[in-house]
Amino acid sequence: MSNITVTHADSGLVLTNVARTTRLSPHIVRVTFAGGQLDRFEYKGFDQWFRLAVPVHDEDRFDNLPQRFGVGGLLKFLTLPKGTRPVIRNYTIRQFDPQTRELDVDFVIHGTEGIAAPWATSVAPGTQVAFIDQGCGWAPVPAERALIVADESAMPAALAILRDMPRGARGDAVIELFDERDAQDVEAPEGMTVHWLFRDPSDKPGTLALPALRDLDIGDSLYAFAVGESALATGARRHLVNERGVPKANVTFCGYWRVGRASPS
Ligand SMILES: Cc1cc2nc3c(=O)[nH]c(=O)nc-3n(C[C@H](O)[C@H](O)[C@H](O)COP(=O)(O)OP(=O)(O)OC[C@H]3O[C@@H](n4cnc5c(N)ncnc54)[C@H](O)[C@@H]3O)c2cc1C
User: Fold this and answer.
1) Pick the CATH number of 13-135 from 2.40.30.10, 2.120.10.30, 3.40.50.2000, 3.30.470.20
2) Where are the alpha helices (DSSP H) in 42-101?
3) Protein residue with its CA nearest to atom 39 in ligand 1
């Protein structure tokens, strides 16, 4: 479930190549993309995300993918021949260097299941990919405090938002991971307190983050952004709206993935 608004950048479909991969920590692989059409890509910062077309067959094509991935774009995608159709997965831009025009995506390596995560662990430099920009989910309404709630899949979004939000921002970021070795350096405004929580790997995402929300002082005026595993995102929203009286319009939430279910797109 999600209430994020899709705001496509004008750059539309962008074809590019894998430049290199870097194992940042036990469960995070950074894939750096460079070249191709990245010279005309519009970077908006924050949690800007895209539909990544992951090649799965030798014959996969990228040039006939839709420019937008709304309903029309999805229908166009589904009519493409299966043997030449890449798999679509959603990823956040962790950072983009305007000088080199290199773009980094941090993939959570969650085992051998799935398409995108195993691909990121083994992809060779030079491999072509494409992506369709979806804009930023972070859409703050005027409020005195901000709250970010995230799991490991949303750590790139949380850290990029903390990096790009106004330096005078005040509030909290609750980031729950299943391995503390995956935590990254944070460039946050002084008034934003970052709470790192490390659940047991056998526990469900949200096991620590949701109870931690109950103890937070959220003030009288809050904008919240809750993203990550579906139960974490919806549980955070339910708590804030039903138990803390935060208006629904002040909470952006999105299930980035779901335990036991492959991504639908
Ligand atoms: C807006 C948005 C931004 C996102 N940004 C990022 C990002 O920057 N980095 C990132 O790593 N993910 C990100 N995700 C989540 C990512 O799209 C999903 O994790 C996706 O399911 C991964 O695809 P896959 O092919 O590896 O696995 P799938 O084929 O989708 O799933 C296969 C199995 O793996 C499980 N699974 C999927 N993801 C995870 C996970 N993270 N942990 C444990 N089990 C999992 C599923 O439950 C399923 O059982 C984002 C999602 C959204 C909607």
Assistant:
1) 2.40.30.10
2) 71-78
3) 110
